[in-house]
Amino acid sequence: MGRVALGISYDGRGWSGWQTQPGGQTVQDQLEAAIASFVAAPVNTICAGRTDAGVHALGQVVHLDSPVSRPESAWVRGLNSALPDSIAVQWAMSVSEAFHARFSAITRSYTYVICNTAVRQPLWAGRAGWCFRPLDAHIMQAGADLFVGEHDFSSFRSSQCQAASPVRTVHSLVVEQRKHLILVHLKANAFLHHMVRNIVGELVLLGQGRTDLEHLKRILQARDRTLAAPTFSASGLYLTQVTYPADVLPNPPADPDTSMHNLELF
């Protein structure tokens, strides 16, 4: 038996999130079915971060304990041959038993894509959030700067969040405009349930001029979810990268650029 780490990407449209459900319509269910077929035994997987229904991933990381030994390249080819088109293994690595996809992670990065057009764009349906009112990316960046650092994010966590503490450290939060698209890049040690989508919802109100920076400061300090904006759509959210200490998981040799900073978007 050996522990294996996998890099997974998936299109969240059509899936009921990451975590297994009785109906089997989740990314974890599909992945574990492919693994069971590949190793001829049921195997449980642990992911770096559970994503909700409709949320996408470019850099999800998973670990499993395999009952058989297989070359790393065989894991990629074998699993992808059994997975649906919307889910794919990008890389596989043998790791020590000390590696844990969730607990060994030191940072997680997400990007939220907003399509800012007066009329909805069908090609972005399910792939981006939509805001028909013009957004000011510069004021959104000023608001984003308020979130950087260690804060109590109670105003931006779901009522169903099960995290023991609402305190998180945001390393960076960058608002980038590309023609009709606005990308919000977030990097933190960890995120609370719905934290990214709730922050984006507040930044969208700010970018529309429907609120201001002083109001945003008060919401962050109030630690009261009822004062903040509604949770923004899941459609535009992408888990882009999870990082680990080099001695636990060195850079995967086939890991693509998942940052979305350099991703070509039409």
In short:
The protein is 21% helix and 28% strand.
What does this protein look like?
By secondary structure, the chain is an alpha+beta fold. The chain folds into 2 domains: 2-104, Pseudouridine synthase I, catalytic domain, N-terminal subdomain (Alpha-Beta Plaits, 2-Layer Sandwich); 107-239, Pseudouridine synthase I, catalytic domain, C-terminal subdomain (Alpha-Beta Plaits, 2-Layer Sandwich), CATH 3.30.70. 21% of the residues lie in helices and 28% in strands. It has 5 helices and 10 strands. Strands 1, 2, 3, 4, 5, 6, 7, 8, 9 and 10 form a 10-stranded mixed β-sheet that branches. Helix 1 (27-39) crosses helix 2 and helix 3 (137-145) packs across helix 4 (195-207). The longest helix is centred in the N-terminal third of the chain and has 13 residues, at 27-39. The radius of gyration is 19 Å and the shape is globular.
